[in-house]
Write a structure and sequence with these properties.
Layout: H1 2-18, E1 42-43, E2 51-57, E3 71-77, E4 81-88, E5 98-104, E6 109-113, E7 121-127, E8 132-139, E9 145-155
Parallel strand pairs: 1-3
Antiparallel strand pairs: 2-9, 3-8, 4-7, 4-9, 5-6, 5-8
The structure holds calcium ion (2 copies).
The site of one calcium ion has 7 residues, from strand 2.
Length: 156
């Protein structure tokens, strides 16, 4: 499974390198927008249950939220096993403090990782079989860049 994720990441990084970036001022070129709420969460799932996403936090969301800042929601389906979710923050010339949260299908917070600036985040949580969960990526200190973060998920 590790090899699979590594392969997916390599493919995504290559695709990102040749794609025009930061074209859309509202989304920063994030192809997962609009995903600024639970209702608009983008579904992530592969046949093997592993995920690998490149997206970014950039400026104001396409739909207004309480904070008026970009945040990204993703939906995954539990498979009755431990799942490890990691957020690799983008490189930037300034400090970035991105945090990671996990919610259940009733929007209750069930896990989080809130390390400080320039630290990656990780959540390991048992996900009930066939239950929906939501991953939230946001910027703690209102720092944004069109540089992509890497969100991965894999069964443990
Ligand atoms: Ca985004
Ligand atoms: Ca968003």
């Amino acid at each position: 499974m590790k090899k699979l994720v590594a392969g997916m990441l390599t493919a995504l990084v290559l695709a990102s390198a040749v794609a025009p970036h930061g074209v859309n001022a509202a989304t920063g070129g994030d192809s997962y927008e609009n995903n600024d709420s639970f209702a608009d969460a983008k579904r992530l799932q592969t046949a093997f249950g592993a995920i690998a996403v490149l997206a970014n936090l950039w400026g104001t969301p396409t739909r207004s939220t309480a904070t008026g800042e970009d945040e990204d929601f993703f939906e995954i389906l539990g498979r009755g096993q431990n799942f490890e979710i990691t957020l690799q923050i983008p490189s930037a010339s300034f400090a970035l403090d991105y945090d990671l949260e996990l919610y259940d299908e009733n929007y209750n917070l069930v896990g989080f990782s809130r390390n400080g600036s320039n630290k990656d985040e990780k959540i390991v949580k048992y996900l009930d079989n066939r239950k929906k969960y939501y991953i939230r990526v946001y910027s703690y200190l209102s720092h944004f860049t069109t540089n992509d973060y890497v969100l991965t998920g894999i069964a443990r």
